[in-house]
Design goal:
six-stranded parallel beta sheet; three-stranded antiparallel beta sheet; ATP-binding; ATP-binding protein; globular; 9 strands; WH-like_DNA-bd_sf; 788 residues; Arc Repressor Mutant, subunit A; Rossmann fold
């Protein structure tokens, strides 16, 4: 088995909701380019189908990239400074270190066989060029597929100009029906038309009109799709008449071939003219959203001044029917996307009617209020829903913050960044969150509650990034403000985070005193969040210093507090802390139960740091019970997690001795070769699979102890050997894996050398024998579980 199956979760591509039509030449050419070049750029005007082609190529070649195929959507990104972080987020790298994003990204991809799809780069061209060239130099097997209206212009780049689905020039002669229906433009139009008019087909009676429509639209895919939607209300002849009228007006009667961007603009103009006045207004107003939006946001931001709130739903339905808004049904609550070409058109209209600034303020106000509401409600039963919602809204939250700081409303921006503290700590955005907080702190120097809150929030992020001196400086200033203004809440959080810095300085006695101060102050003012955080940390430090009874009592108090509010996230960390202490007391069964319960919740929240801590405890338990193969694999899983976070154990570094002792025990139990093999097997698991393995949810055959793989081949060589056994030629192997034929030949030479063979037939026999032996082992295992 190759590593591909274990990496399938890394293929983060959206599901195709409509059929992919044609493009056989472009697909073949793109695959050829990817096999020869590490950077391939699709160029062409908006609406020509670059993104759809890139997604199809990525889906087709995903088997060739065992370390993942990743889509990075850049259309909604306006700030070039966020490019690297956006790519890291798409790759699920949660950099919790203070290292430069470029370094973390390059290290993560350095030895990986992965495909990165950067979509819609034209507005960030210089920055994308630097990023791609930097990654290309830092890695050996990374491939990058770019879509842009213009090439990046970097070394080694191959470009493919994506053409429209044009029809052949027949000098006015109508194509026969059989020929016409084989053309991509006609097939696309017919398929999209049949979706809105069930039973629609191209026939002898209508094929001449269909051909003229496709020619009139220059075969531009987006134009064809927008036009097909009109068949809900128009006949084919009416559709053609209106296209002719509009384009004739634009070209003053010229019969010259229309520039494609003008053709598309004309069709969007026409789509706009077919909307009602209120639909046009809503189209313009939703253009202020980034990424996507939900109905509540549309009602709040876009209603008023010509649109009644109760009418927004029907107007949204109208824009969905007209293919202006695209419903995204993958989320529990329906969200709506808007294509970048359509969004830009709406922004122009919004500017024309003089509402752009007002709508941007309303957008900012809505997301400012959303952040404040999340801050109030995150400690409670709806926690997972809120964390998920903030992740979906991240692009809009970022846009709102950009508006605040761009318009000089720095206090509002600082308050909003502070309210989003748990969004920064639990997601992919820790570095970005710290950046917003520091930007606001640099601009707002008045010693007030806003600044004090921002200081302790920024100090927490600095602690997670193990920048302890910076955190101590911020906490000292926050304490001074809190004491001067008698801000009890500020002093509670300062005590809490000062306890964390004390533990990072290996001063447990001072940390205990500070945590106890934090508990007392938080309890006095009725702040359950600060109290839960302080009790969690107090549980761990009591455990570390050997005060077992006090540690368990503190952990149980924390759980009781969380249960009173229906809170789960802090409770999960309390379970982890109790698990550590029960493990130290020798109660492995209770420790494992607590760690697994905590891990299940952290998985649902997608909290990778929390999951890593849970898996650490489970690895220690496995080593202590002499389950060395399991402990080794868990070490491999943890290696992937800590690499993704850019840090090991983060602010829980004082637990490192337990980790080191466990690893040493496992290494002695398996031997160095066996230990490395077990770690490799764990490292090959995708994150979701690693969590499932830690929870012992994997199939039984994945959980039994097995000897280390004695194959001398690398995973890539094993994969190629399997293809040789299937009878593929070097050329076919190269095409399947999207590599150069010379590369495939080189791999086969290495395989022959390692195995001591001199023919492909011997490789095939070797593969079949190994597969047969693996099958016999599986059969033996199945019979063994059934008794005598």
């Amino acid at each position: 088995m190759t590593t591909q199956t274990s990496k399938r979760a890394h293929n983060r591509l959206p599901t195709e909701v409509t059929s992919f039509v044609g493009r056989r030449h472009e697909v073949a050419e793109a695959k050829r380019m990817l096999s020869q070049s590490r950077i391939v750029t699709f160029t062409g005007p908006g609406g020509v189908g670059k993104t759809r082609l890139a997604l199809r190529i990525a889906a087709d070649v995903r088997r060739a990239f065992p370390d993942g195929v990743w889509l990075v959507e850049l259309a909604a990104l306006d700030d070039p400074g966020m490019l690297c972080r956006t790519v890291a987020e798409a790759l699920e790298i949660r950099n919790q270190s203070s290292r430069p994003c470029f370094d973390v990204l390059a290290d993560h991809l350095r030895d990986r066989q992965a495909l990165l799809v950067l979509d819609n780069c034209e507005h960030l061209l210089p920055e994308c060029a630097v990023l791609v060239e930097t990654l290309a130099r830092a890695t050996s097997d990374l491939r990058v597929l770019v879509t842009s209206q213009q090439a990046l212009g970097v070394a080694g780049e191959q470009t493919l100009a994506v053409p429209a689905m044009s029809l052949p020039d027949m000098d006015g002669v109508v194509l026969p029906l059989e020929t016409l229906t084989q053309l991509d433009a006609v097939r696309l139009f017919a398929e999209r038309a049949s979706a809105v008019v069930p039973g629609f087909t191209v026939t002898e009676a209508n094929h001449e009109t269909v051909e003229r429509i496709c020619r009139r639209l220059d075969g531009i895919p987006l134009a064809l799709e927008l036009a097909a939607v009109r068949l809900r209300a128009l006949s084919l002849d009416q559709l053609l008449d209106r296209l002719d009228d509009r384009f004739r007006l634009l070209t003053a009667g010229s019969r010259a071939v229309l520039p494609r961007h003008r053709t598309l603009r004309a069709l969007i103009d026409w789509s706009y003219s077919l909307c009602t006045e209120q639909e046009r207004l809503l189209w313009a107003r939703v253009s202020v959203f980034a990424g996507s939006l939900d109905l509540e946001a549309a009602e709040e931001v876009c209603s008023g001044d010509g649109i009644a709130r109760e009418d927004v739903l029907n107007l949204v339905i109208g824009l969905v029917d007209k293919s202006i808004l695209i419903p995204d049904e993958q989320n529990p609550a329906m969200r709506y996307r808007i294509l970048d070409t359509i969004r830009q058109y709406g922004r122009e209209r919004l500017e024309e009617i003089g509402q752009e600034e007002a709508l941007r303020r309303r957008h900012r106000d809505y997301y400012r209020d959303l952040a404040a509401e999340a801050d109030r409600l995150l400690f409670g039963p709806d926690q997972v829903a809120w964390f998920t919602r903030l992740q979906h809204e991240h692009a809009n939250l970022r846009t709102a913050l950009e508006h605040c700081f761009g318009q000089g409303e720095t206090r509002t921006g600082l308050e909003m960044a502070t309210d989003l503290i748990y969004h920064w700590t639990t997601g992919y955005y820790l570095g970005e969150g710290r950046g917003w907080l520091e930007k606001g702190l640099a601009a707002e120097s008045e010693p007030n509650l806003t600044r004090a809150r921002a200081l302790w929030c920024a100090s927490w992020l600095a602690i997670i990034q193990t920048e302890i001196a910076a955190a101590e400086d911020m906490l000292a200033e926050a304490r001074a403000i809190g004491e001067r203004l008698e801000l009890s809440q500020v002093l509670a959080y300062v005590a809490l985070f000062s306890g964390m810095t004390a533990m990072c300085r290996d001063m447990p006695a001072e940390a205990i005193a500070l945590y106890e101060e934090g508990v007392r102050r938080a309890h006095e003012i009725g702040d359950p969040v600060a109290e839960a955080l302080a009790r969690n940390r107090l549980t761990l430090v009591r455990s570390v210093v050997g005060d077992s009874d006090a540690a368990i009592a503190e952990g149980e108090r924390c759980i009781a507090l969380c249960d009173a509010y229906g809170e789960q996230w802090h409770r999960a960390y309390a379970l982890m802390a109790l698990g550590v202490e029960y493990w130290r007391r020798g109660d492995a069964a209770s420790a494992a139960e607590l760690a697994k319960e905590s891990l299940r919740f952290n998985r649902s929240l997608d909290d990778m740091l929390g999951a890593g801590l849970n898996i650490e405890v489970l690895s220690w338990i496995a080593a202590g019970q002499e389950q060395y193969e399991r402990a080794g694999r868990l070490c491999g899983v943890l290696g992937t997690i800590w690499e993704s976070l850019g840090t090991t154990l983060s602010s829980y570094g004082y637990l490192m001795p337990y980790q080191e002792e466990s690893e040493d025990r496992t290494r002695r139990g398996l031997g160095e070769t066996g230990y490395r093999a077990a770690v490799r097997r764990g490292a090959r698991l995708a994150y979701e699979e690693g969590v499932a393995y830690a929870l012992e949810e994997a199939p039984e055959e994945e959980r039994v102890e097995r000897p280390a793989d004695t194959s001398p081949l690398t995973p890539r060589e094993t994969e190629i050997a399997q293809l040789v056994a299937q009878g593929m030629s070097n050329k076919e192997i190269a095409a399947t894996l999207v590599i150069a034929q010379r590369t495939a030949e080189g791999h086969i030479e290495h395989i022959l050398s390692k195995l001591g063979f001199n023919s492909r037939a011997q490789i095939a026999v070797w593969v079949r024998e190994r597969d047969h032996a693996a099958g016999e082992r599986a059969d033996k295992g199945e019979r063994g579980t059934g008794g005598p």
